[in-house]
Write a structure and sequence with these properties.
The chain is 36% helix and 19% strand. With 305 residues, the protein is α/β, with parallel strands linked by helices. The chain folds into two domains: 7-124 and 272-304, Rossmann fold, CATH 3.40.50.10860; 127-267, NAD(P)-binding Rossmann-like Domain (Rossmann fold, 3-Layer(aba) Sandwich), CATH 3.40.50.720. The structure holds NADPH dihydro-nicotinamide-adenine-dinucleotide phosphate (NDP). NADPH dihydro-nicotinamide-adenine-dinucleotide phosphate is lined by residues 126, 129, 151-156, 175-177, 180, 218-221, 223, 227-228, 230, 245-247, 268, 271-272, 275.
Length: 305
C-alpha cells in the first residue's frame, strides 16, 4: 500500500505498482493538502460495510504546472480511478481532458477527473462544495437572497457561476482590481437570467447594496496573518451572514470582524469537505451526504482544529 502521508512526484509514477484502486490530488505545492486524510478516512469507513473499498488509496503528488500534460497521460495509463486538481492546475487541465461536464463549462476550470477508457472526464465540484458548506454552517441556500461576493479570481468565478446557476436574486461582486472584475462580469453575464448582476470597488460600496445579503469571501486576503480584510463589513448594509472560503487560518480578519458585529459566520472548511465528498461520489457512486461527516472529522483532525 502506498503511504498516504508521503508526497510523491512524477518519477514515482513510472514505477507505481499499487494493486488496488489509486486516487490522487495533484498540486504545486501540495504538502499542506488535507485531502488524503479526508478521503482515506472516508474510504476506511466505507470499507467496513463494502469490502471492495479496502484496497482503495488516495495519495498526493507534487506536479509542477509544466509537467501536468505529461502527468495526466501517465496517470491515465496507470489507470488511476480519479484525480483531484488544486492550485495551479484547475484551469490548465480544462483544455486537456477528453470530456467536460456541462455544468463545469462556464467555470472554465475543473477540480475532479474520472478515468474512462477513452480519456479523462472533467468535473468541477467546488460550486457544490460552496453551496453545501454554506447550507451546513449557515443554514442558507445560495438562491435564498442577495449575495455579495468578494474576489474575481478562479474561486470567485466558480462561486459566481454557482450563484447564477442556482438563481440567486442579486449578485454583487467586489474586487480590488477593476480590470479583473470587469473580465469576470463579462464572462458570467450571459448566465445571469433572472439575477441582477453588479460590480463595485470594495473601498467604495454603493448605496444600493441590499440588506440581509450573504457575504462570501473568495479572495486570498486573510491567508497570511498580516493581510487586510477584503472589505469593511461595517460599511455595508447589515449582512445576514459571512462565509470565508479560507479555512487555514480558521479565523481571518473578515471573520473576526463578523464575529464582533454579531453576524453569523463560518470559514471554508465545509466547502473543502463537501467538494471532496462530491468528488468521491463521482468516483465511487456513494452519495456525498454519506461520506461528508467522516471527511469533516478527518479534516478537522488533520488541521488540528
Ligand atoms: P486567485 O489567485 O485566482 O484570486 C485571488 C483573488 O484575491 C483576486 O480576486 C485578488 O484580487 C484577490 N486578492 C488577493 N490579495 C488580496 C488583498 N490583499 N486584498 C484584496 N483582494 C486580494 O485565487 P483563487 O480564486 O484560486 O482562491 C481564492 C481564495 O479561495 C484562496 O484563499 C483559496 O484558499 C480559497 N479557496 C478555498 C477553497 C475551499 O475549498 N475552501 C477552494 C478554492 C479556493 P485582484 O484581482 O485585485 O488581484
Amino acid at each position: 500500500m502506498p503511504d498516504s502521508d508521503s508526497v510523491f512526484t512524477l518519477s514515482d509514477l513510472a514505477s507505481w505498482a499499487h494493486p488496488g484502486v489509486s486516487l490522487a490530488v495533484l498540486g504545486h505545492p501540495i504538502k499542506h493538502s488535507v485531502s488524503p486524510a479526508m478521503h482515506n478516512a472516508a474510504l476506511a469507513r466505507l470499507a467496513q460495510s463494502h469490502p471492495r473499498f479496502r484496497d482503495w488509496r488516495y495519495v498526493r503528488f507534487d506536479i509542477p504546472p509544466a509537467d501536468l500534460p505529461q502527468a495526466l497521460e501517465q496517470f491515465h495509463a496507470k489507470k488511476f480511478r480519479g484525480l483531484n486538481l488544486t492550485v495551479p492546475h484547475k484551469v490548465i487541465a480544462f483544455g486537456r481532458v477528453r470530456e467536460i461536464d456541462p455544468a463545469a463549462q462556464p467555470v472554465g476550470a475543473i477540480n475532479t477527473l474520472r478515468w474512462s477508457e477513452s480519456g479523462w472526464q472533467g468535473f468541477n465540484t467546488d460550486g457544490h462544495g460552496l453551496a453545501s458548506g454554506v447550507q451546513a454552517t449557515l443554514g442558507r441556500d445560495l438562491a435564498a437572497g442577495p449575495v455579495i461576493l468578494l474576489g474575481a479570481g478562479g474561486a470567485a468565478r466558480g462561486a459566481a457561476v454557482e450563484c447564477l446557476q442556482r438563481g440567486c436574486p442579486a449578485l454583487w461582486i467586489a474586487n480590488r482590481t477593476r480590470e479583473n472584475l470587469d473580465t469576470l462580469l463579462t464572462a458570467i453575464r450571459p448566465l445571469a437570467r433572472q439575477t441582477v448582476l453588479h460590480g463595485f470597488a470594495p473601498d467604495a460600496p454603493p448605496a444600493e447594496l441590499p440588506r440581509g445579503a450573504l457575504v462570501i469571501n473568495a479572495t486570498s486576503a486573510g491567508l497570511r496573518p498580516a493581510d487586510p480584510a477584503p472589505i469593511d463589513l461595517a460599511a455595508l448594509p447589515r449582512p445576514a451572514a459571512v462565509y470565508d472560503m479560507i479555512y487555514n487560518p480558521p479565523a481571518t480578519p473578515l471573520l473576526l470582524q463578523a464575529g464582533k458585529l454579531g453576524l453569523a459566520c463560518a470559514n471554508g472548511l465545509t466547502m473543502l469537505v463537501h467538494q471532496g465528498a462530491k468528488s468521491l461520489e463521482i468516483w465511487t457512486g456513494v452519495s456525498a451526504g454519506q461520506t461528508a461527516p467522516t471527511m469533516l472529522a478527518a479534516a478537522r483532525a488533520a488541521l488540528g482544529a
